[in-house]
């Protein structure tokens, strides 16, 4: 069976105030064309269909158009909700839409009830495992401590148990939205850290033929059977080196996997440039970036006048300006943003305690801080569900 694996559409999201709706519509057209041209037998969409729980009307209309076009192809589509989606909203009308061959899986309780499709070699069971917020689903899955690994492992136990009841030779595909160990993150993903741990081991998905992952925006292979498709469009300058694509996956009669990447159309290349303002304006080597969306990091020791206005004269699509003045080693005047770079909320809070008190938190205090952050994330998730 030939699958097309995609995820993280983030319909309704902009890129540094630039609307991406037209580019997202172009991607949907590309997706439909790919399904038709490559004789795809099933499409899997691994979460974050929308960018937020209450998407703008234009994003909903684009999603509606995508559903109609996929249904018109007569090719089944299996889709799960991600951490950006409102599972309840995305799942409205799922039973009715199911009749058109669009299978929305947004309920954790239904994770072990597969969509069963068949090809010349027999059945393929597709299990939709939507984003699982540990604090909200731990009781349902009977785990004592809220954590991503615990709830995903419990859900996968149910999936493997159901798969064991199926006819011998039944192949299996799991759609999941999670941060798996070994995956490379970008600045675009919303933090899903719980209990101080965001990542889960790839071994959680043992026992299935293919795990189609969503959440991380870079296309990547964790194992031959566990892959991220990545987002079809860039949503931060940290994705400047990404090659946006989908996975075209062939699942043979014995469940062996072969996969190739199918590139996605990107409206404009991304470029990150660095130097003093005068260097950026004069360097002939940067001429190739004049049509790109540009993030410029200025290293001038003193902030120059009207830097963005001057930059856009040469780089008309410059969108982001970062100041990182070059200073002598040991200079204490380092920007606040630079001091916080690559530090988690937990680490920042612990640094604040050390700054105020003169000593960092002890083990008990670190646990209290971690539980406080987890409670805030759970509260945010509950508010999104209630919207």
From TrEMBL:
Top-rank taxon: Bacteria
Entry-linked PANTHER family: COMPONENT OF ATP-DEPENDENT DSDNA EXONUCLEASE, NUCLEASE SBCCD SUBUNIT D
Gene Ontology terms describing biological process: DNA recombination; DNA replication
Quaternary organization: Heterodimer of SbcC and SbcD.
Signal peptide: none
InterPro entries per UniProt: Calcineurin-like_PHP, DNA_Repair-Maintenance_Comp, Metallo-depent_PP-like, Mre11_N, SbcD, SbcD_C
Function according to Swiss-Prot or TrEMBL: SbcCD cleaves DNA hairpin structures. These structures can inhibit DNA replication and are intermediates in certain DNA recombination reactions. The complex acts as a 3'->5' double strand exonuclease that can open hairpins. It also has a 5' single-strand endonuclease activity.
Phylogenetic lineage: Bacteria, Bacillati, Actinomycetota, Actinomycetes, Kitasatosporales
Domain Calcineurin-like phosphoesterase: 1-218
Protein name (Swiss-Prot/TrEMBL): Nuclease SbcCD subunit D
Key words of the record: DNA recombination, DNA replication, Endonuclease, Exonuclease, Hydrolase, Nuclease
UniProt gene name: sbcD
Family statement drawn from the similarity comment of this UniProt entry: Belongs to the SbcD family.
All residue ranges annotated as the Nuclease SbcCD subunit D C-terminal domain in the record: 267-355
GO molecular function: 3'-5' exonuclease activity; endonuclease activity
């Amino acid at each position: 069976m030939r699958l097309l694996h995609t995820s993280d559409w983030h319909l309704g999201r902009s890129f540094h105030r630039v609307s991406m709706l037209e580019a997202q519509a172009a991607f949907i057209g590309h997706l439909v064309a790919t399904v038709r041209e490559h004789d795809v037998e099933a499409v899997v969409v691994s979460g974050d269909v929308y960018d937020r729980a209450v998407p703008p009307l234009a994003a909903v209309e684009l999603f509606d158009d995508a559903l109609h076009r996929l249904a018109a192809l007569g090719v089944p589509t299996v889709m799960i909700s991600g951490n950006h989606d409102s599972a309840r909203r995305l799942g409205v009308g799922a039973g009715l839409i199911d009749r058109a061959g669009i299978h929305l899986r947004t309920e954790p309780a239904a994770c072990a009830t597969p969509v069963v499709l068949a090809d010349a070699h027999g059945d393929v069971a597709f299990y939709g495992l939507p984003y699982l917020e540990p604090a909200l689903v731990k009781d349902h899955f009977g785990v004592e401590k809220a954590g991503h690994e615990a709830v995903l492992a419990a859900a996968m136990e149910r999936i493997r148990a159901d798969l064991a009841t199926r006819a011998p030779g039944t192949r299996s595909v799991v759609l999941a939205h999670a941060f798996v160990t070994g995956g490379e993150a970008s600045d675009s993903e919303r933090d899903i850290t719980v209990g101080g741990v965001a990542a889960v081991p790839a071994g959680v998905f043992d026992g299935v033929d293919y795990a189609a992952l969503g959440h991380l925006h870079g296309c990547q292979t964790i194992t031959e059977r566990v892959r991220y498709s990545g987002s079809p469009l860039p949503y931060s300058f940290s994705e400047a080196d990404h090659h946006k694509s989908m996975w075209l996956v062939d699942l043979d009669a014995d469940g062996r996997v072969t996969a190739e990447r199918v590139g996605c159309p990107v409206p404009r290349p991304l470029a990150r440039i660095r130097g003093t303002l005068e260097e950026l304006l004069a360097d002939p080597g940067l001429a190739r970036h004049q049509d790109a969306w540009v993030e410029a990091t200025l290293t001038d020791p003193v902030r120059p006048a009207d830097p963005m206005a001057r930059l856009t004269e040469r780089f008309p699509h410059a969108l982001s300006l970062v100041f990182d003045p070059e200073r002598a080693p040991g200079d204490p005047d380092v920007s606040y943003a630079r001091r916080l770079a690559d530090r988690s909320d937990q680490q920042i809070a612990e640094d604040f305690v050390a700054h105020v008190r003169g000593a960092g938190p002890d083990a008990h205090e670190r646990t209290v801080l971690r539980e406080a952050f987890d409670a805030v994330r759970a509260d945010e998730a509950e508010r999104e569900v209630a919207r």
